[in-house]
Hints:
Helix content of chain A: over 70%
Strand content of chain B: under 5%
Distance between the termini of chain A: 16 Å
Largest sheet of chain A: 2 strands, antiparallel
Number of strands of chain A: 2
Strand order of the largest sheet of chain A: 1-2
CATH architecture of the largest domain in chain B: Orthogonal Bundle
Oligomer: heterodimer
Amino acid sequence: MNQNSVAIEVDSRDTELNANGKRKKRNLNWKKIIPLTLMALPGIIYLLINNYFPMFGLVIAFKDVNFAKGILGSDWIGFKNFEYLFATQEAYIITRNTILYNGGFIILQNLTGIAVAILLNEIRIKVMQRVYQSVVLLPFLVSMVIVSYLVYALLSTETGLMNNGILPLFGLDEVSWYSEEKYWPFILTFIHVWKNIGFSCVIYLAAIVGIDQEYYEAAKLDGANKWYQVRYITIPSIVPMIIMLTLISIGRIFYSDFGLFYQVPMNSGAITDVTNVIDTYVYRGLLQLGDIGMSSAAGLYQSVVGFLLVLLSNYTIRKVSKENALF
Amino acid sequence: MHYSRRESTMFKEEKAWQWSSHIILAILSLSCVLPFILLLMASITDERTLIQQGYSFFPQKFSLEAYSYLWNNSNGIFRAYGITILITVIGTTIGLAITSLIAYVASRSDYPFQKVLAFFIFFTLLFNGGLVPTYLLYVQYFDIKNTLFALIIPYLLMNGFNVMLVRTYYITSIPAPLIEAAHIDGAGEFRTFFSVVLPLSLPILATVGLLQTIMYWNDWFNGMIFITDASLYSIQNVLTTMMNDIEFLSKSNNSSVTSVVVSVPSTAVRMAIAVIAVVPIFAAYPFFQKYFVKGITIGAVKG
């Protein structure tokens, strides 16, 4: 339906151009269209395969997938898969975990990013500024698998630095990290912030550097101290950026960083209640438990709610500042 | 008098801010670097010390055993390294080519289907089918399992986000009259793109190509879901598999698994593999840092 409306728009534009008497002819210029279409073709084919076919493939959530009959030939079972999924406790747990973790991540990542960006902006020695910024970005450069190795080196029960080096200093007992649920909400949040702090600080620093220096000069003449300058100049100037980034993240709140929730806790069964999110649930259902019905139902749930959230957040962005809206 | 006192308090305050900024950022920087140092130290610690003393910044006994083991049993590791380099080079090259081509067409306002095409690209950012249909499509219909294609094509080759970035660059930085002039000079569409547009778009292609290179180098997800044949593992997949082995060992604490222990590389070796997976990125980082920061910034603002 959306594509139709776009096509109509294009048509009306063409006729408009004709009415204006531009030299463009109504009949299409094939010498232009054919080569340009050929250039776009590899990309179009890729998007069809990688993005559009799977969208239609979402209908398997309404099927009883049977590989003998083929995916298209499997029987329709209506909403059965969803009934099973939402009858389980797990549907609640994965939704709760996904939203709480990502919600917390959004708040903390923005706060720490802004704080670090403000501090970086204060540094007058340019070399040091660059060194700090580069180093803070290091965790963002490596894969989650590497991060899971770093975490293992810290938290392994027998050989980890925590149990062997740090806890004994305070006279504390060993902790069996990978089987104690209560620590993981903090561990995962800490790792997420640690890995992404460089990323958000770079974005906010770019916004802060762009603030007109005259505001600060004027504030200094009026005797405003640093706190006032940060509070009444820096922060208000980057509020649009904060709102934008937050809304974009809220639009993606139903999607989690799979590696963080799967690799870092080492797929440990004892702590799944606090590490299972929609993405890991879908993965386990598909590739470990072979429960395609539940897995595809959860996947469709994620896609549809995710889509609605993106539309909602974009709608809100448009209300706040039109030029920043995605569409 | 009053004025100068204010000056001096401001000077003191400035100094306090400088110092506290340096201190906080230095602590933060340390927290970003120390875990990697721990990893490095673990890889050069003597295996027995490692088991008795645990991971430590100051191991009692050093040993390069792990690296010499890797060197002597290097077939698997070098192969995995080669596969990572191969998929990174091929994926980034093809990805950049098809990204810039489709982005260029979608940027041409005189292309009659420009709006349809732009929407076609953009919609993939809003809605997606998720893991299950994508996986089944690639495995059942394209039979991609245990092939190199599995490490290159799904998810990574091109994404709507990068296409939109490049498209925005074409629209804002390449003037339409330039393209028209090339046409008037008799250049066809392909000639115009390759000899006029492409040379002008090198900055954005460098940025997008860099992001894509890092993405390929770091990817372990495709290998985890599509590859079961160890000879096709990338370096990241070697790491995920070893991690799963640790997990398996810690779950079954009986002595019957000792036969498995033999096949699992020792702890230091595992850490050494993680080190050599990180080193190329960190070594190249100073050279691409500027582009990387730029890529992040334009991505956040334009996206």
